[in-house]
């Protein structure tokens, strides 16, 4: 019982850190897709007197990555139902040209405004609509959630690290006698702390397996069963097999840091 | 013959140094000498040994062991020095979660010997102290005297340059005591090991020449 408690006190905070790392990774990946979606889904609406080439737009502002001409015939066909052929041709000739402009990256309102100004500097451009507001409030909320989550993960990690070091001190106390005897017989630090390392590395492996298993379960079972769209859509990025290696490496690093911080703090053991 | 231990005006005390245990002691011990240290309980015999293996710093005076001034010795050098010592503790200091055999070869383990060598040496050493059949037991399954002999075997494991023994026969009957004394005499005679033994009873049958120090009223005196 004491044995299990001893290890849980180490494994749980370690798992908290690993969960934090994995959440962070998953979040970065999903937000990448989300940002890409926002970027791709966004377009600026521009009205010009004469037709314009992509290169002409790009000469005005380098963020513009694509143009799509909206077919004027469709617009005219709507408003000229029952009107004679010649009249509709006249209307068509009088109509300006409409474009949807794509951007190369996700930009803030101020930058959108700058693009608008750049475009309007050309006499050929009659009107620019950036749809800045609705688009930006979405993004702001999104950035805020992202930021809070990162702070939360950091906070959890720091608290967990303290818990790990605390538990390590308890272990050190349990192994103190042996470490002292070994020290008197001239054992170097590595040999003396060998047992601590062994126990801690074992726990690091256990923690990594548990966290990986949890995410694999979420990915392959829960995500598809949940019916939550965003989960199903992003199933691929939820947990990658390569994450196991990353988690294990992180766990080992934390363990090595914890063992050394504890072992070094115990120098000069006098009876 | 070279000096293995040289103490000059050595003063030892615990804590902040207000209460001196040993005061102004000077003595020299040469390679291959066999030294008995006696004195009343609480006089500071164990304390003196502790200072010799660098676990207690001198508050005044100097202590040089194996050519190293223990006041200024670096951590790595102290480790090296300790690896050449065979220390026997009054309270045994065995590692209770290790088997007897593993305890005995701790110095070999520290020196990095292979497990095969450790195994054969463990068997040889345990035979010397008449504990062969207890190799796979744990220290707490042994009697006090048996544990003490495990401690002796451990101290002899790597043919140390210096043996520091604190009451190595304190819990033993005459027969077992003589086994221990024989081992130490052999080490001293054949390997020129320097031996310091704290004891309350110098053995009556002892074939080697030896020196005898008494610790009394904070002083260390040699009996001639
Ligand atoms: N760690 C310690 N801290 C403070 N005082 C100590 C410590 N160890 C020993 N002493 C004190 O130092 C004095 C000498 O102790 P030491 O153990 O050296 O005596 P000893 O001669 O070995 O006695 P014994 O024959 O009973 O083993 C004692 O008065 C003891 O109380
Ligand atoms: Mg003593």
Fold and architecture overview:
The complex is a heterodimer of chains A (271) and B (224). By secondary structure, chain A is α+β, with helices and mostly antiparallel strands. Chain A folds into two domains: 2-37 and 148-265, no CATH class; 43-130, Alpha-Beta Plaits. Helices cover 73% and strands 9% of the residues of chain A. Chain A is built from eleven helices and four strands; from the N terminus they run H-E-H-E-H-H-E-H-E-H-H-H-H-H-H. Chain A has a four-stranded antiparallel sheet with strand order 2-3-1-4. Chain A is elongated and about 105 Å long. The two termini of chain A are 31 Å apart. The mean pLDDT of chain A is 82. With 224 residues, chain B is an alpha/beta fold. Chain B has a single domain, classed as Rossmann fold (3-Layer(aba) Sandwich), CATH 3.40.50.300. In chain B, 33% of the residues lie in helices and 28% in strands. Chain B has a six-stranded mixed sheet with strand order 6-7-8-3-9-10, with helices on both faces. The two termini of chain B are 20 Å apart. Residues 14, 21, 39, 41-47, 90 of chain B line the site of adenosine-5'-triphosphate.
Using brief descriptors, characterize the structure shown:
heterodimer; A: 271 residues; alpha+beta; Alpha-Beta Plaits; 4-stranded antiparallel sheet; 9% strand; B: 224 residues; alpha/beta; Rossmann fold; 6-stranded mixed sheet; globular
User: Uncertain runs of chain A with pLDDT below 50, 5 residues or more?
Assistant: none
Specify the helix fraction band of chain A.
over 70%
Could you report the average pLDDT of chain A, rounded to the nearest whole number? 82
Architecture (CATH level 2) name of chain B: 3-Layer(aba) Sandwich
Q: Got a strand count of chain A?
A: 4
CATH superfamily of chain B: P-loop containing nucleotide triphosphate hydrolases
How many β-strand stretches of chain B? 10
- Counted by DSSP, the helix tally of chain A is 11
CATH topology of chain B, which one? Rossmann fold
> Which regions of chain B contain 5 or more consecutive residues with pLDDT less than 50?
none
Largest sheet of chain B: 6 strands, mixed
The domain count of chain A comes to 2
The percentage of residues in β strands of chain B lies in: 25-35%
Bound molecules: adenosine-5'-triphosphate, magnesium ion
Number of domains of chain B: 1
What's the helix count of chain B? 7
Morphology call of chain A: elongated
What share of the residues of chain B lie within helices? 25-40%
What is the CATH C level class of chain B, in words?
A: Alpha Beta
Cα Rg of chain B:
17 Å
